[in-house]
Amino acid sequence: MSENPKINENSKQEQLEQFRVDDTNKILTTNQGLKVSEDELSLTAGKRGPTLMEDFHFREKMTHFDHERIPERVVHARGTAAHGVFELYESMKPYTKAKFLQDPKVKTPVFVRFSTVVGFRGSADTVRDVRGFATKFYTEEGNYDLVANNMPVFFIQDGIKFPDIVHAIKPEPHNEIPQASAAHDTFWDFVANNQESAHQVMWLMSDRAIPRSFRMMQGFGIHAFRFVNEQGKSHFVKFHWVPKLGVHSLVWDEAQKIAGKNPDFNRQDLFDAIEMGNFPEYELGVQIIEEKDEFAFDFDILDSTKLWPEEDVPLKIIGKLTLNRNVDNFFAETEQVAFHPGHVVPGIDFTNDPLLQGRLFSYTDTQLIRLGGPNFHEIPINKPVCPFHNNQRDGYHRQTINKGRVAYHNNSMAANTPAPATEEEGGFVHYQEKVEGSIIRTRSESFNDHFSQPKLFWNSMSPIEKQHIINAFSFEVGSVKDKSVQQQVVDMFGNVDLAMATEVANNIGVTPPTAEESSVTKASPALSQENTIKTQVGRKIAVILHNGFQDTEVKEILQGLNIAGVAYEIISDKQGFVSGKNNVDLQVVHTFTTTHPVLYDAVYIVGGSNVDDAFYKNASDFVKEAHKHYKAIGATADGIEWLESNNIIGDPGVIEGSGKQFLETFLEAIAAHRHWDRKVI
């Protein structure tokens, strides 16, 4: 291990620097370095003759263009990513020997990719879907990949069924419709006939499926892994990412409109926040179970359709992730990054979770076809910071130039090097778990309970969250054309909650279920987003101004918003500048035609003097749309009259007034995220 470089938060950035090229003010050349004299015209036989085969520049340019697109990921195709750093709060040495979890002084460089699961690369960000949250730690012992989702459970219990769930939820094969949506027959037919999916579907129908932002989204490692310490003692562990801005979501109507107004909404939100220096932060939490307690719960801890309730297994916060740099090139980094739950370091090991076991094969296999062969680890974004040496050779896109004749083990010509490392030298040694049994295709009976935890999830929801779940079921299952499938679904979810399933049945026109619902009465408050962190930091608001506005007060309020960590954009009827009563000019970012209220967390309306009918109507429509989505609305000066004329003054989260008191109250309303007690028509 002595050859390993000192790893710090800049190590990966420094390594990538050699691959970055700026073509500005450079001479045009071929990929072989030959200077090109003409790039507009092909080589032809005469002015009007055919293009010649010998035009090597045309062939190189066109061949590269033809091959610019690699196959998109089968799942998680649409994503965005950023670089960052991980800092440990306290040493985890009692539990694991993983070096990056030993010393709080060490900062580990990371690369994080967020994604939707179902949609193609060209789909929208705000569809109802599971989200990926994959983190690559560039450690001195090699790359460690924590491949997580924003939901702690999965649809299936065994990896062999992964192709089935993906085939079912993807667009139907006869017409490739619908895109990025579960609202179709094959998905719900799968659900009804594979009832282990019940828990994941409850999460999918909840607000968790339409996050406000990647900055406000949790991540879960899903599987039970192992921590192994220097003494060889093992603990079961689950990983959580907890956003410091809290966990917040869109409302469904808003999400659908955003998909049309700005399909890159979540991508742009993350990119803009980092560019402005508002670096997203997430704390790493772990749930730890001693081996002796493996069977101490009323669920199987290795079942990926089950979570470990935090009331039973407390969450221990151990570190912080900060995303502080956007990518330089989307394709080279975000598109080519390759994650794999099998990329581990000493001190982190696997369990017998059958879904995890399947993923350990699948991830390598899919990278081989996506990235052109076995050397995807040499692509800059995937390359470890620490050195790597082995007897692997050749293959597509090999970059390493291996010297010497020996490429096998054992050998004498190279003194039997590269040589394996002992465990004391940092060599990875699998945890020695005793395993015995017949060779058989079966599933443990401890995996058979499919409805207790969905009921736990339902019990944990607030009334408004429950109503959103009912609305989501009604929309999704209501989009199914096969009445038999609809009936099967409501019958199935009657096992979770009869009242919920009955309301859905009535909404979609099928027979209410008569199933015996789960008797679970336990709830887990940690599962409700109503109990999350609530802060105004990181929010974005629309400020509606017209010429003649009260500029002294507005400047003070905008300054206060900025100090409080709130971003804002000024909206008026024309781009350029809008002038206040004291000739203070503020730049207009958008007009009513270039933006929309669904793209903001709140609205601050001021207005101005001599407002015409068109401006008044546009501003009123803007405010009404925000009001309909339960967002905070603030008004000062002329804006107060607009609230009165639109009959929304005095509603929860609608703040009017002036000065410091207005600002403080408005910030509290923004931090609340939504005002569900508001009556919306």
UniProtKB/TrEMBL annotation:
Residues reported in the UniProt entry to bind heme: R73, R113, F162, R359, Y363, R370
SMART domains according to UniProt: Catalase
Catalyzed reactions per annotation: 2 H2O2 = O2 + 2 H2O
Keywords annotated in UniProt: Heme, Hydrogen peroxide, Iron, Metal-binding, Oxidoreductase, Peroxidase
Main EC class the enzyme belongs to: oxidoreductase
Annotated InterPro entries: Catalase, Catalase_AS, Catalase_clade2, Catalase_clade2_helical, Catalase_core, Catalase_haem_BS, Catalase_immune_responsive, Catalase_large_C
CC per GO annotation: cytosol
EC number(s) from the headed UniProt entry: 1.11.1.6
Cofactor names: heme
One Pfam family it belongs to: Catalase_C
Record bears the keyword NAD: no
Annotated Catalase core domain residues: 29-417
Example GO molecular function: catalase activity
Catalytic residues identified in the record: H76, N149
GO biological process per UniProt: hydrogen peroxide catabolic process; response to oxidative stress
Function: Decomposes hydrogen peroxide into water and oxygen; serves to protect cells from the toxic effects of hydrogen peroxide.
Family, similarity comment: Belongs to the catalase family. HPII subfamily.
UniProt name for this protein: Catalase
Organism: Oceanobacillus profundus
Lineage of origin: Bacteria, Bacillati, Bacillota, Bacilli, Bacillales
